[in-house]
TrEMBL record:
Keyword Oxidoreductase: yes
Residues covered by the NADP-dependent oxidoreductase domain: 16-308
Keyword hit for Oxidoreductase: yes
Lineage: Bacteria, Bacillati, Bacillota, Bacilli, Bacillales
One Pfam entry name: Aldo_ket_red
Domain of life: Bacteria
Keywords, in A-Z order: Oxidoreductase
Protein name as it appears in the record: Aldo/keto reductase
Organism expressing this protein natively: Ornithinibacillus xuwenensis
Length: 312
């Protein structure tokens, strides 16, 4: 497959534009999802070269993993697809606890394997850090699972820089997934120097700032899901952010590209980032995102974009 990249130091090779699957079966996040359409979206994208899907137990409490597993099984290309999933949420009755203990990590990996209908997970992340488990111990457990062939690469998500260092004390962390986009750039200082130095790949989540950087929202846009409470999508902050997206649109127009494509190309030009996982609810969105691979930004365009989001 052309244009494949290696994820950090792992042996995983992917199309750098993956799919974030929290809107695939993520009924707890988005109302009114159509599961059949969700599966068709994955299959259509795979036919067009998508080979990296990012899911998690907590998207629909296992439903996203089940649908991803079904879609990949139906299309019959398990070995060509890189599946990333995440776990750490233990339910005791209705109550959710974050748990990184060795026993629970073994249990949750086994449960993900079943839901995904597979006998290996390409990339397994600890979704959130808990308060009690030493991070090197949690990662030691994932290393055992890796040696046993149940997972191929080790990830952490939402770990602070200190937790990442502790987790990686034996050098076993392959990937960190964290909040990063043009509006939210702390990771450049907080994580990138360390991850670059240690060959850990940084996978940004919310690459479109939950849709804002895909370039289609206006002042009139109303959100009927968890986005309704996001500060950057409300009031004056939303209006100021839309102005920045308009400036980005001028660059995109010059290149006869979409705002969303220019944004993805900007991330992929960062040394710390190998892959992106934009979410999508419609097949045309995921196909449109895949075609961002055709966009090349000059150093001057990279700078111009940087300036839009760093100046007040
Ligand atoms: N590790 C973690 O804790 C964590 C946390 C959050 C997310 N994630 C992962 O990161 C992935 C990405 O985050 P996200 O999906 O929440 O947010 P996002 O990628 O920033 O935004 C996705 C939204 O942008 C819109 N969109 C996408 N492509 C578009 C296109 N080409 N044209 C127009 N609109 C487009 C869609 O929303 P509309 O159609 O509704 O406008 C889509 O749902 C998730 O799917 C998940 O896998 C991980």
């Amino acid at each position: 497959m052309p244009n494949q990249v290696q994820i950090g130091n792992t042996d995983l090779r992917v199309n750098p534009i993956g799919l974030g699957a929290n809107a695939i079966g993520g009924h707890n996040l988005y109302p009114g999802l159509n599961e059949q359409a969700n599966k068709e979206l994955i299959k259509a994208a795979i036919k067009e070269g998508l080979d990296f899907v990012d899911t998690a137990f907590s998207y629909g409490m296992g439903r996203s993993e089940e649908l991803v597993g079904e879609a990949i099984r139906e299309i019959g290309k398990r070995h060509e697809i890189i599946i990333a999933t995440k776990g750490a949420q233990r339910f005791i009755g209705e109550e959710k606890h974050i748990d990184n203990s060795p026993d629970f990590l073994r249990e949750t990996v086994d449960a993900s394997l079943k839901r995904l209908q597979t006998d290996y997970i390409d990339l397994f992340y600890i979704h959130y850090p808990d308060e009690n488990t030493p991070k090197y111990e949690a990662i030691g457990t994932l290393k055992e699972l890796k040696d046993a062939g149940k997972i191929r690469a080790i990830g952490v998500s939402n770990f602070s820089p200190e937790q990442l260092r502790e987790a990686n004390q034996d050098g076993y962390v392959d990937v960190i997934q964290g909040h990063y986009n043009l509006f939210h750039r702390d990771a450049e200082q907080d994580y990138f120097p360390y991850t670059i130095q240690h060959g850990i790949s940084f996978v940004p989540y919310f690459p479109f700032a939950s849709g804002l950087l895909a370039g289609k929202y206006t002042k009139e846009t109303q959100f009927n899901d968890f986005r309704a409470n996001m500060p950057h999508l409300k009031g004056q902050a939303f209006e100021q952010n839309l102005e920045k997206v308009d400036q980005l649109r001028q660059i995109a127009n010059r290149k006869q590209a979409e705002v969303s494509q220019v944004v993805l190309a900007w991330y992929l030009a960062q040394e710390a980032i190998d892959t992106v996982i934009p979410g999508a609810k419609k097949t045309e969105q995921v196909l449109n995102n895949l075609s961002a691979l055709e966009i090349n930004l000059t150093a001057q365009e990279m700078n111009e974009i940087d300036q839009i989001f760093t100046s007040d």
